[in-house]
Amino acid sequence: MTQPDDTQGSEPHLTLADWRRQIADLYAAVREHSDLDPEAAWGQWCLGREQLYRDHPQSPVPAASRAAFRSLYWPYDPAMRFEVTVQLVGAPAGPGAPEGPRAPEGPSPLARPLLALPMGNGAALDFTRIGEIEIPFAVGIRSLSLYWIAGYAGGLFLPFCDSTNGTATYGAGRYLLDTAKGADPGGDVASGHLTVDFNFAFHPSCAFDPAWSCPLAPPENRLDLAIEAGERLR
Q: How many whole angstroms separate alpha carbon 150 and alpha carbon 208?
C-alpha cells in the first residue's frame, strides 16, 4: 500500500518504519504462542492492532476518528486455521511440453513474468505469481494464488475476496499475508508449509481511508463462500 500525500509530522519515514517494526513484533509474538494457544495469540493480535489504529501516527484511520476507533472481529474459529503446502509454479520443461502437476521447485520469483495487480487508485503494482495453496474448507477445497511483491520491499502477498465483501467487510477484499509489512503468521521452509489462519484476515489501509492506495485481490482469489473470520467493518 502507499500512504496519502499528506506528510504525517516532520518525520513520516521514521514513523512508517516504527509502524512496520511494531507490526512485525506483533506477528513475532503470534508465531511464538500460536502453536500452544492460537486463540490467545489471536486475542493479543486483536488488541495490538486496535491500539496501533488508535494511537500510531501511521494509522490508516483518519486522525479525527482515531480516539473513538474500535476494531471489529468475528469470534475466533479454530476451524479456519490451516497448515497448507505451497505448490510452487515450476519452469516449463520446454516448447510443447505436456502439462502436468506443478513442480515442487521453480525459478526465483524475480525470474517469473510480472503480473500487475490493480490498486485502489486505478494504478497497478507489479507482483509475480509464485504458487498456489489449497484450503480444505468444510464445504470443499478452494485454491488461492500466492504472490511475491516484485518491487517495493518484496515479500509474500496473499489477498482474497469472499462473499462478505461489501457488507461485513471491505468491498475489495482482505489480506492474509503481507510479509513486506511483517504480517506473517508463520510457516515451515523445510516442508514448504504456510500457516493460513483466516482469523487473522485484515483489511488494507484503503478500507479505512480512500486517501490510501492498496493492491486489490485478483479474480482468481475470489472465494465463493463467506469467510466469517478475522477483521470486519460492521
A: 25
Could you tell me whether strands 87-88 and 81-85 are parallel, antiparallel, or unpaired per DSSP bridges? unpaired
Kindly give the residue spans of alpha helices, DSSP state H, lying in the chain. Answer: 12-33, 38-55
pLDDT of residue 190: 85
Three-state secondary-structure class, residue 22:
helix
Rounded Cα distance, 30 and 186, in Å: 9
- The pTM of this model reads 0.84
Cell of residue 150, nine digits = 516484485
Checking if the pLDDT of 109 tops 90, the result is: no
The amino acid present at 201, given as its one-letter code, is: A
Nearest to 83 by CA among 191, 183, 171, 168: 191
3 state DSSP class of 16: helix
**Backbone φ and ψ of 137, nearest 5°:** -65, 160
Q: What is the enclosing helix (H) or strand (E) of 100?
A: none
pLDDT at 5: 38
Q: From CA 180, how far away is CA 162, in angstroms rounded?
A: 23
189 has pLDDT over 90:
no
Q: Write down the residue that cell numbers 503446502 correspond to.
A: 85
